[in-house]
Amino acid sequence: MINNDLNNLVIIERKSKDIDKIMADTVDPNPTPLTGKALLQELKQLSDKPRRETAKKCGYYSVTKDGQVRVNLTDFYDAVLAAKGVPLQPGSTKDGRGREPTFRVSVHKNGQIVIGSTYTEQMGLKPGDEFEIKLGYKHIHLKQVGVEDEEAA
Description:
The chain has helices spanning 2-26, 36-45, 51-57, 73-83, 117-122; strands at residues 61-63, 69-71, 131-136, 139-144. By secondary structure, the chain is an alpha+beta fold. It has a two-stranded antiparallel ribbon. A two-stranded antiparallel ribbon has the order 3-4. A hairpin with a 5-residue loop joins β1 (61-63) and β2. α2 (36-45) crosses α4 (73-83). It is rod-shaped and about 80 Å long. The N and C termini lie far apart (99 Å). Residues 102-147 form the SpoVT-AbrB domain.
């Protein structure tokens, strides 16, 4: 009984290897991966399949020198996210140089608060502009001296 079961398993294993060889022969060595709406439509049709098979059917695989098929899941996931409109690298348009304004200041050891030139340029301030300091509970208001109040006008 056990010997018969082992023979059946060996036959099944041989058949699955034969099927793999047949599939490897029918696989395009240079697949064109689906992108955009075509990829999303194919995903809906293959929703019941395993993710590796889905990625392979969508063209995200490569064939090695010895004929083995390797599924590129990372590229597949990136393409799915791009098709859904999710930015993968949101900061890629910047050149990577310089600092980003944080809109925070800190008190220095000498007790001074310094506001950086980025902020003063954005507010249109010039050297010599004066401010009146009004302290509140957990906040500070800086009111520019010599400028009419917008609310009163």
